[in-house]
């Protein structure tokens, strides 16, 4: 069986992704510790968790800037901008494939090529997470870090509580995304194929 190889993940995307993934995992871990452990029984000591959370948040924010600028300046951005027609139908087709077709060994409904490296569900979730959730997560985090900068009241509740609620909801959404993302990344030709792509840059597929 011949193997088709397409170079889809340039070095800067792989580096951005590695730093982002590690830092987001640290943020989730320290975030859970700050939220749910008690002072007598901390998962990670509170002041240490706050310190790690702040440093990781700073790195994620800077790294996020690299993602946005990189996608404006390089061809990688087209994978986020160029959409196939009939989005709703395509999302449904991909969902049915993940729910049923994949277990019947049916072919992927949207094979990967140089022009479309993401299937519709991947693309939709990446755009929502990277261009909606991440900026709101970062802004709400900055609000919590520098409370003097935010409005005293938002929608008649304390500005600090408002930013806190937004930050926690988005943290939860991104944590859920990471779980589903890691699962869908096991659905390549073999369970390790897509992880390998993110290391060597090449998407591999048996023809
Ligand atoms: C923590 C462990 C993570 C693992 C193991 C992982 C794994 C992967 C793999 C294997 C790919 C390549 C397959 C594909 O294109 O879908 C990928 C791509 C991607 N991942 Fe992750 N990921 C992780 C965390 C994250 C996080 C936290 C985010 C965002 C908040 C994220 C966002 C993305 C995006 C946007 C792409 C596409 C990048 C591009 O090619 O332009 N990932 N990930």
List descriptors:
207 residues; mainly alpha; Fumarate Reductase Cytochrome B subunit; two-stranded antiparallel sheet; 4 strands; elongated
Walk me through what this model shows.
The protein has 207 residues and is mainly α. The protein has a single domain (3-206), classed as Transmembrane di-heme cytochromes, Chain C (Fumarate Reductase Cytochrome B subunit, Up-down Bundle). The chain contains 7 helices and 4 strands; from the N terminus they run E-H-H-H-H-H-E-E-H-H-E. It has a two-stranded antiparallel ribbon. Helix 5 (120-145) packs antiparallel against helix 6 (159-184). The protein binds protoporphyrin IX containing FE.
What is the fold's blueprint, element by element?
Elements: E1 3-7, H1 11-36, H2 46-73, H3 78-81, H4 87-99, H5 120-145, E2 153-154, E3 157-158, H6 159-184, H7 193-200, E4 202-206
Antiparallel strand pairs: 1-4, 2-3
This protein binds protoporphyrin IX containing FE.
Residues in β-strands, percent: 5-15%
Most strands sheet: 2 strands, antiparallel
Elements, N to C (H/E): EHHHHHEEHHE
What's the architecture, going by CATH?
A: Up-down Bundle
Number of helices: 7
Strand order, largest beta sheet: 1-4
Shape: elongated
CATH hierarchy class name: Mainly Alpha
Bound molecules: protoporphyrin IX containing FE
The rounded distance between the terminal residues' Cα atoms is 6 Å
Q: Mind telling me the C-alpha Rg?
A: 19 Å
Estimate percent helicity. Answer: 55-70%
Q: What is the fourth-level CATH superfamily?
A: Transmembrane di-heme cytochromes, Chain C
């Amino acid at each position: 069986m011949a193997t088709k190889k397409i170079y889809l993940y340039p070095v800067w995307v792989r580096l951005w992704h590695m730093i982002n993934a590690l830092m987001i995992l640290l943020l989730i871990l320290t975030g859970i510790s700050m939220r749910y452990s008690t002072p007598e029984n901390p998962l990670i000591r509170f002041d240490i968790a706050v310190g790690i959370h702040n440093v990781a948040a700073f790195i994620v924010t800077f790294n996020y800037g690299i993602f946005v600028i990189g996608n404006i300046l390089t061809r990688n951005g087209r994978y986020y901008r160029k959409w196939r027609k009939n989005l709703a139908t395509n999302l449904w087709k991909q969902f049915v494939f993940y729910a049923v077709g994949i277990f019947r060994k049916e072919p992927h409904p949207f094979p990967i090529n140089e022009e479309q490296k993401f299937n519709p569900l991947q693309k939709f979730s990446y755009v929502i997470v990277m261009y909606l959730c991440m900026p709101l997560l970062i802004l709400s985090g900055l609000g919590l870090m520098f409370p003097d900068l935010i409005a005293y009241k938002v929608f008649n509740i304390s500005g600090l509580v408002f930013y806190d609620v937004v930050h926690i909801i988005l943290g939860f959404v991104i944590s859920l995304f990471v779980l589903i993302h890691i699962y869908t990344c096991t659905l390549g030709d073999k369970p390790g194929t897509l992880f390998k792509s993110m290391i060597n840059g090449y998407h591999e597929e048996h023809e």
